[in-house]
## 1
Amino acid sequence: QGQLVESGGGLVQAGASLRLSCVASGGSFGSWTMGWFRQAPGKEREFVATINWNSNYIDYGDSVKGRFTVSRDNARNTVYLQMNNLEPEDTAVYYCAASTSPVPPFSAVGGEALVRGMDYWGKGTRVTVSA
């Protein structure tokens, strides 16, 4: 049973940067597709990014393209989300997730399907961006 623990959230001003980390345990991290999702108050969980096992395929949600970068270090069982030029609209709880099988592109199936396709979830880390 995989376990995921996120860290790195906080309160920042618009335009700032944050880097989130997610450490995995209890499974074969090196073979998992990893994802980041977020959920703002009163809204559905939203797709942010996915990265496949060897970082050859990376996918981003439309609202974060060009500002966020996902990466992973399989030797450290860790996936990262570098968030630059943060906006108040990025305020949310950010969740790390893992799929034990490859996931389809966001453009093909949408965020809801990606959410349903993940096998493991962390408890989230809160990011608040003030104007």
## 2
Amino acid sequence: EVQLAESGGGLVQPGGSLRLSCEVSGFTLGGSGMTWARQAPGKGLEWMSSIHRDGSTYYVDSMKGRLTISRDNAKSTVYLQMNSLKPEDTAVYYCVIVSRGYWGKGTLVTVSS
């Protein structure tokens, strides 16, 4: 059974940083691209960032410069470093294996003073 488990969310003040983790089990991480997406309260899903098998990375334009996606295939974990967080970044963040349709349950990030 493939499982994606996000962690690292929580309450952070505006301007703060968080690093989200997504641990993948039951699937060979090195053979697939990985994606982070988010859903803010009352809004639709938004693609944030992807990292391909070859390590190439992609980011949503609105958050370029504030996000860094990375992967550790040995630990079967993908990370999303988020800096300079704003209240509008409040959302549930999901990791996704798009090619297979696998989703984690998400981790809530709340940016508030």
## 3
Amino acid sequence: QVRLVESGGGLVQPGGSLRLSCAGSGISVSISTMDWYRQAPGKQRELVATITPNSNTMYADSVKGRFTISRDNAENTVYLQMNSLEPEDTGVYYCHRRFNEYWGQGTQVTVSS
């Protein structure tokens, strides 16, 4: 059974940092194109960052220079390091595997003073 389990969300002040984790089971993240999406209240889900099997990375313009996607093959886990967080980064963050469209359950990130 395939599972993607996100963790690491929480409440942080503007300018702070969080690191999200996406632990995979039943799949190998090292040979998968993996994404992080987010959905803010009342808005559509948007693509935030992508990492390919060749370790190429791509970012939404709104997070470039602040967020970093990475992967630990031994842990079968994908990470999203988020720095200089802004209130506009608030939302539920989802891990996604493109092949077969697997989604995690999401983790809430709230940026507020």
